[in-house]
């Protein structure tokens, strides 16, 4: 089954404790992206990647890191999480430029 | 400035009514794509439609229809004869060829269909 998977689905952590949210897709898509969803703000793009070793900042990249060492994986790293990073995070992939994105199920992160 | 504006935060309709969700976008690019996504209460994001800037034909898919008007920078979504299963948050999104596939989403419209 074609899908985007994210782990973990739920995470509660404390300020400053480094964490990684994994994202993997099995559709051989070139493009992958991370978003955060906050009430009243919609989805905002954090980072995106057009291909392996190519990443670009979205609208809200501060406090996040990403890497794209393999085509199928695009982990999101929070090196020192803060409470304002409490949010619902979505990973997405698409086969190339300007096509529709396929989204993962979301990761709900709470930073206390 | 917001590139995609969905002015309707929440809409409630009674089942079988028609409802239109508004989307206004802003871009200086001549090549761009517009999208609609649905987020039901279960939380996943479901792709509904993709439209490029060179195709202003309206599209109909069952009870769903989309009206794209470049003159007013709008890409509105109409649900005909709404059903309870249409209750969801709907997002409009824009991607510009110039910026290399950065996506801009609106803030969403929460639709509640009352039985």
Describe this entry's structure for a reader.
- The complex is a heterodimer of chains A (112) and B (115).
- By secondary structure, chain A is mainly β.
- Chain A has strands at residues 4-7, 10-13, 19-25, 31-38, 42-51, 54-57, 65-66, 76-78, 87-94, 102-103, 107-111.
- Helices cover 0% and strands 51% of the residues of chain A.
- In chain A, the strands form two sheets. In chain A, strands 2, 4, 5, 6, 9, 10 and 11 form a seven-stranded mixed sheet that branches.
- In chain A, a hairpin with a 2-residue loop joins strand 5 and strand 6.
- By secondary structure, chain B is mainly beta.
- Helices cover 0% and strands 52% of the residues of chain B.
- Chain B contains no helices and twelve strands.
- In chain B, strands 2, 5, 6, 10, 11 and 12 form a six-stranded mixed sheet that branches.
- Chain B is globular and about 45 Å long.
- The model of chain B has no long low-confidence stretch (mean pLDDT 94).
- Chains A and B meet through strand 4, strand 5, strand 9 and strand 10 of A and strand 5, strand 6, strand 10 and strand 11 of B.
What's this entry about, in short?
The complex is a heterodimer of chains A (112) and B (115). Chain A is mostly beta strands and 112 residues long. Chain A is 0% helix and 51% strand.
């Amino acid at each position: 089954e074609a899908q985007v998977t994210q782990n973990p689905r739920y995470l509660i952590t404390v300020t400053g404790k480094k964490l990684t949210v994994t994202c993997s897709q099995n559709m051989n898509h070139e493009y992958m992206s991370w978003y955060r969803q906050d009430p009243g703000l919609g989805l905002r793009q954090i980072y995106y990647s057009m291909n392996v070793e190519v990443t670009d900042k979205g609208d809200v990249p501060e406090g996040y890191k990403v890497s794209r060492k393999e085509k199928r994986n695009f982990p999101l790293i929070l090196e020192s999480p803060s409470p304002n990073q409490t949010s619902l995070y979505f990973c997405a992939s698409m086969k190339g430029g300007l096509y529709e994105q396929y989204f993962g199920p979301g990761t709900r992160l709470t930073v206390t | 400035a917001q590139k995609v504006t969905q002015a309707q935060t929440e809409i409630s309709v009674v089942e079988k009514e028609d409802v239109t969700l508004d989307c206004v976008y802003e871009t200086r690019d001549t090549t761009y794509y517009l999208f609609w996504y649905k987020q039901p209460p279960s939380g996943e994001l479901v792709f509904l439609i993709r439209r490029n800037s060179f195709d202003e034909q309206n599209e109909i898919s069952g009870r769903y229809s989309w009206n794209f008007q470049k003159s007013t920078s709008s890409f509105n979504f109409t649900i005909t004869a709404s059903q309870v299963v249409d209750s969801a948050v709907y997002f409009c999104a824009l991607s510009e060829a110039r910026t290399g596939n950065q996506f801009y989403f609106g803030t969403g419209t929460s639709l509640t269909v009352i039985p």
